[in-house]
Amino acid sequence: MFGWLTALSRPERKTLLAAFGGWSMDAFDFMVYTFVIPTLIVTWGMTKGQAGFIGTVTLILSAFGGWIAGILADRYGRVRVLQISIAWFALFTFLCGFTNSYEQLLFTRALQGLGFGGEWAVGSVLIGEMVRAQHRGKAVGTVQSGWAVGWGAAALAFTITFSVLPEATAWRLLFWLGLLPALFVFYIRRHVPEPAVFEATRARAAHQGGGSFLEIFEPALLKTTLLACLMTTGMMIGYYAVTFWLPTYLKTVHKLSVPSTGLYTIVVIVGSFIGYLVAAYLSDQIGRKKTFVLFASCSAIFVVLYTLIPISQTVMLVLGFPLGFFVSGNFSGVGAFLTELLPSRVRGSGQGFIYNFGRGMSAFTPLLVGALSDSIGLGRAIGIVAAIAFGTVIFMVALLPETRGKELAVYD
């Protein structure tokens, strides 16, 4: 299953490490907020609706950031824009630790979202163009598994800091740790080259004229753009309905302690990491579409079991693994799928728009679930929203073409 790693060239491996590391750090800086929500609710008197609104604004800004970063990556290069994105989200995560009010945190998290959205948009195109077709799905999916690593690091940091420090200090320290990803920029700057297909496309465009980023809305690409946008929207809504509120659900609904909340979350994260890798492997073996349908179907089933069916805490602990496995595994094939769906001249901007359109639409998920929880309970709100979202994914995938094994043309 992992033998393909040894077949990668040195530039492919270095690019894989850079994209994996960047996405892991992106995940850490985004997910630390979900762990401090209960503390800020008590400390500042912040409501669940306000906590959800911060998440919503962050995701909306990340959608714009992703599209802007994609446009800039088509113009100035994947590697340069990736460095800027990482440095940006690291800086504003760090500044979150100095906030003293809901309004201040809303401002810093919103700006953090710009870099958060840009990192995936650029990193996924970079690895998709750098790695050859037979390993592209596995490589991009492996990069996607970095999210579980960053999420796990955030859970571990939360468990340690909140166990040894007063909550008033611990939540600030979690945000301050978010500055560390900025150090990774130096590795990227030194070791990661631009993909050959991008350099060739840019050289040809300099003589013949390049594609407009608005080309994805023209008749030839419009159907693909719309269907792919709705697919990513369903994935994002289902994912954030579960993961954004998970620590709060465990701590407030099931009354788990800080160590227990960390343990239950880590089980979900371990499942997520393995799910990313397995889905990445399957996307190259059985195809992108079959993998998407399999994981979206199972995601809906396990979300319902985890949140809507009365179960003991022991059963819930066990179900956390398949829940994370399938909910996160949905995303493994997305980067490769979008890379193969779009022509090279608008790949960065198109991929950035499609993925981040889904993220922007899903931005209302934390707010929606938080608002629904006031009337129907947090568990039911999570389960209903997520199940509908994953059903949408299945329907949209059925209308899109299979792209497994597609070679990328220089100027298609």
Question: Features of this protein?
Answer:
globular, Growth Hormone, Chain: A, 412 residues, mainly alpha
Give a structural overview.
This protein has 412 residues and is mainly α. The protein has a single domain (4-182, 206-398), classed as Up-down Bundle (Growth Hormone, Chain: A), CATH 1.20.1250.20. 81% of the residues lie in helices and 0% in strands. The protein contains 18 helices and no strands. The radius of gyration is 20 Å and the shape is globular.
Summarize the structure.
It contains 18 helices and no strands. The protein is mainly alpha-helical and 412 residues long.
Helix content: over 70%
Q: Approximately what portion of the residues adopt beta-strand conformation?
A: under 5%
Low-confidence stretches: none
Structural class: mainly alpha
> Any idea how many domains?
1
Radius of gyration, taken over Cα atoms and rounded to an integer in Å: 20 Å
CATH superfamily membership: MFS general substrate transporter like domains
Based on DSSP secondary structure assignment, what is the total number of beta strands? 0
**Helix-strand string:** HHHHHHHHHHHHHHHHHH
Mean pLDDT rating? 85
* Large-scale geometry: globular
Question: Tell me, what is the CATH class?
Answer: Mainly Alpha
Separation, N- and C-terminal Cα atoms = 32 Å
Alpha plus pi helix count: 18
CATH architecture annotation name: Up-down Bundle
Mind describing the biggest β-sheet? none
Q: Within the CATH hierarchy, at the fold level, what is the topology?
A: Growth Hormone, Chain: A
Provide the fold topology.
Blueprint: H1 4-7, H2 10-44, H3 48-76, H4 78-96, H5 102-130, H6 133-164, H7 167-176, H8 184-191, H9 196-208, H10 219-243, H11 246-253, H12 258-285, H13 288-307, H14 313-329, H15 334-341, H16 347-362, H17 364-376, H18 378-398
Helix pairs in contact: 2-4, 2-5, 2-6, 2-7, 2-8, 2-11, 3-4, 3-5, 3-16, 3-17, 4-5, 4-8, 5-6, 5-15, 5-16, 6-7, 6-12, 6-15, 10-16, 10-18, 11-12, 12-13, 12-14, 13-14, 13-18, 15-16, 17-18
